[in-house]
């Protein structure tokens, strides 16, 4: 009888982390491993699967069909592993309510699976999530309406910490070009908005005229307007639809935009056990090495 082959959980985690971060060098830093060690793990994974997992794409790597399939399975395997470890590692059952605020970028991508896994591991704990813009989430934390919130921008609260810094980029439709000499058509949230402020400040400093051609209360509306070719928007690449592209500022005749901070706010200096547990999970997921 032939013994079944088993994937190494650490190797799968390196694989998934590298794909999520878009770089295995960043994955090595995030996981505390050396780049040669990560390369050996990826070779081990390819040998075990018997498939080519990556193909060259410009200066980087892209997943093959086999790589995409394995990635989907790896995410599910790791989710179950982490859910089991979370449940079994609990010294006592967590119960009560936990109120979390999150930005739209993460609400449509990475956070719902995390919240689902957290809820399954702690079935007596009820999680209430609010999706909103940063200023409103910070105000809700300070009022005590939320236990914790993740926000873009430098808004401060009584109990906040810096998670990561992300570059702000110009984003446009695949076939859209900014017209030289014309006011830059901005697609953005109305103020207050850290991304809009960064664009307006950079354009004003460069002496470039601009006009806001589209605003929306939701991120989906901004993406739809960019897709339609109404103008350009300013965000990070988090949650950016794959059919859109990041503009090279120099080639597009646009100023560089700098970066934006990702912040974590808690209502209490010493959070309760449920808030502390979810806070630690969020920090592990959202901290991206630069």
Automatic annotation (TrEMBL):
Superkingdom field: Bacteria
Family matches, as InterPro entries: LTTR, LysR_HTH_N, LysR_subst-bd, WH-like_DNA-bd_sf, WH_DNA-bd_sf
Domain HTH lysR-type: 7-64
Keyword annotations of the record: DNA-binding, Transcription, Transcription regulation
Gene3D superfamilies documented for this protein: Periplasmic binding protein-like II, Winged helix-like DNA-binding domain superfamily/Winged helix DNA-binding domain
One family name in Pfam for this protein: LysR_substrate
Keyword Transport: no
Family indicated by similarity: Belongs to the LysR transcriptional regulatory family.
Protein name: LysR family transcriptional regulator
Naturally occurring in which organism (per UniProt): Shinella yambaruensis
């Amino acid at each position: 009888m032939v013994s079944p082959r088993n994937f190494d959980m650490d190797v799968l985690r390196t694989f998934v982390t590298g794909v999520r971060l878009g770089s295995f060098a960043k994955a090595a830093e995030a996981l505390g491993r050396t780049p040669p060690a990560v390369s050996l793990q990826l070779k081990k994974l390819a040998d075990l699967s018997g498939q080519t997992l990556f193909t060259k794409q410009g200066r980087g790597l892209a997943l093959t069909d086999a790589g995409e399939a394995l990635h989907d399975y790896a995410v599910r395997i790791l989710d179950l592993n982490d859910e089991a470890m979370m449940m079994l590692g609990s010294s006592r059952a967590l119960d009560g309510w936990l109120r979390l605020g999150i930005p739209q970028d993460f609400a449509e991508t990475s956070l719902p699976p995390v919240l689902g896994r957290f809820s399954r591991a702690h079935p007596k704990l009820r999680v209430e999530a609010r999706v909103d813009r940063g200023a409103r989430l910070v105000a809700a934390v300070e009022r005590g309406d939320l236990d914790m919130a993740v926000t873009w921008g430098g808004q401060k609260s009584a109990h906040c910490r810096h998670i990561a810094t992300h570059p702000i980029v110009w984003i446009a439709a695949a076939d859209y070009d900014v017209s030289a000499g014309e006011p830059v058509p901005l697609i953005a949230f109305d103020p207050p908005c850290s991304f809009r402020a960064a664009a307006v400040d950079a354009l004003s400093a460069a002496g470039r005229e601009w006009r806001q051609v589209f605003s929306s209360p939701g991120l989906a509306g901004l993406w739809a307007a960019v897709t339609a070719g109404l103008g350009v928007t300013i965000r990070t690449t988090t949650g950016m639809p794959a059919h859109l592209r990041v503009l090279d500022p120099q080639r597009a005749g646009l100023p560089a935009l700098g970066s934006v901070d990702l912040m974590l706010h808690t209502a209490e200096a010493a959070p309760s056990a449920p808030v502390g547990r979810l806070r630690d999970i969020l920090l592990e997921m959202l901290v991206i090495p630069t």
